[in-house]
Design a protein that fits this description.
two-stranded antiparallel sheet, mainly alpha, 11 helices
Length: 316
């Protein structure tokens, strides 16, 4: 199969998105003291970890699915067992980390908005590290069964294409059950938190006018987008499990096909969410762009922290 135009567009979008993603990560880590009132250290830790997991998840889709479909490296994959070993240890695990990471970053954002004092006192650096370790243990631990079965790189003439799968059919069912559970829990929890966040923002900006009132629109769009992607992913995986049980190979492969398009979108969305929601990041990026790219001297403008009528800080 050739390298179709839609794949080129998707890969280009992913490359640009992850460059932007890691620029934001570097910016947050280098300026966390200056922006401490806007971005807590726990948020920066979770956002950085999510960025790494999102990148690995998107890379796994390319390496273990897209490359095979495009017809690249087939002989290399067949001749080198370490590739199937790496697939077993990383693919579903990083996919799960991406999905659960959406829930945790949403929970972080929810806590900063609804209970900033409790969040600042309780969600400390050590707590953030513990949450990441716990998240990693869960996402790798639920796939313990994979460590006792080999993966294979096979050709399916009904598609037709090459792909990675488990050497035993029953283990593929276990994979699907684990991923479905993670998808539905994360989708429901993230959806509820996003609704509460939007309601809180709506209350905050209820009496605002002009640009301040319009600033909530990007939040609504991106929360709707992330929640929709998570629910679509959960539905896709449910259909995939049903088709696998009934051995409807064409439907299972169709769900895989769409899943490997929507997962990279979920991985990329957070970079744009940060830019649209944070005026401080937009101002700083504009300043650095004018200074280092266009070589112009401009006064740097710092954004002010918005407060509610109860004088609570809004931390994005």
């Amino acid at each position: 199969m050739s390298f179709p135009i839609e794949e080129k567009l998707l890969i280009s979008f992913e490359i640009f998105s992850f460059i932007l993603y890691f620029i934001i990560i570097i910016y947050l880590n280098l300026n966390y003291k200056k922006n401490n009132d806007l971005f807590s250290i726990s948020f920066i830790i979770q956002f950085t970890f999510n960025g790494i997991c999102d990148f690995m998840s998107a890379l796994s889709v390319i390496m273990y699915r897209k490359v095979a479909i495009w017809g690249w490296l087939r002989e290399y994959y067949i001749e080198n067992n370490w590739v199937t070993w790496a697939y077993t240890l990383t693919f579903y695990q990083f996919t799960s980390l991406t999905i659960t990471g959406n829930f945790l970053i949403t929970l972080n954002r929810y806590m900063t908005i609804t209970n900033p004092i409790f969040y600042k006192i309780k969600w400390t650096f050590k707590v953030a590290i513990f949450i990441i370790i716990f998240q990693t243990v869960i996402c790798f631990g639920v796939y313990t069964h994979l460590y006792f079965v080999s993966s294979v790189f096979v050709y399916d003439p009904s598609i037709p294409t090459w792909y990675f799968t488990k050497s035993k059919w029953i283990y593929s069912l276990y994979d699907s059950i684990c991923l479905i559970t993670i998808c539905w829990i994360s989708a429901i929890a993230t959806g509820l938190l996003n609704v509460l966040i939007c309601l809180k923002y709506n209350k905050i900006f209820k009496s605002s006018l002009g640009n301040k009132k319009n600033s909530k629109i990007p939040l609504f769009i991106f929360t709707l987008l992330t929640s929709s992607i998570l629910f679509i992913t959960a539905i896709q995986q449910t259909i995939r499990l049903r088709s696998a049980i009934r051995q409807e190979r064409w439907l299972r492969n169709l769900m895989n096909y769409y899943f490997f398009y929507i997962l990279p979108l979920l991985s990329c969305v957070h970079a744009y969410l940060m830019i649209f929601l944070s005026k401080q990041i937009r101002n700083d990026f504009y300043f650095y762009f004018k200074k280092y790219i266009l070589r112009r001297k401009i006064p740097k403008v710092n954004s002010t922290i918005q407060t509610t009528k109860w004088r609570e800080k809004i931390v994005i």
